[in-house]
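Design job #97: recover the sequence.
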């Protein structure tokens, strides 16, 4: 998110005011794009580690097995937003439940339960996929 704000301020000279709400829309677009780029980069990075490392790169490697990065991304995108957000922060960003709770404005226990539910839902989807 900070990269998005930094990009916003670096490129403020190229901003064209188009009425009320245009600053908010532009900032939102920049921030979302930076977040998506970071997620894509992390999925690619983790995929490369899974394919070439002796140790599993993902804590949930037993869930993903030998899936391609694209398949993992599709599976993650199919999760409800809350589950997906907590899962991404915990697994890909290496954040703890306390940090996630503070960032998202939820309790530590809510973060834990959403992660547990995300894993269970992914496992169910993977089992149905294999059948």
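Job complete. Output follows.
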């Amino acid at each position: 998110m900070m990269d998005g704000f930094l990009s916003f301020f670096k490129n403020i000279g190229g901003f064209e005011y188009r009425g009320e709400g245009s600053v908010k829309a532009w900032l939102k677009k920049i921030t979302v794009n930076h977040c998506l780029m970071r997620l894509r980069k992390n999925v690619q990075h983790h995929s490369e580690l899974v394919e070439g490392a002796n140790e599993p790169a993902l804590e949930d490697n037993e869930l993903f097995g030998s899936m391609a990065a694209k398949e993992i991304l599709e599976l993650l995108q199919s999760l409800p937003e809350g589950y997906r957000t907590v899962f991404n922060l915990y697994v890909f960003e290496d954040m703890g439940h306390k940090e996630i709770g503070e960032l998202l404005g939820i309790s530590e226990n809510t973060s834990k339960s959403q992660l547990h539910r995300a894993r269970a839902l992914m496992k169910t989807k993977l089992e149905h996929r294999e059948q």
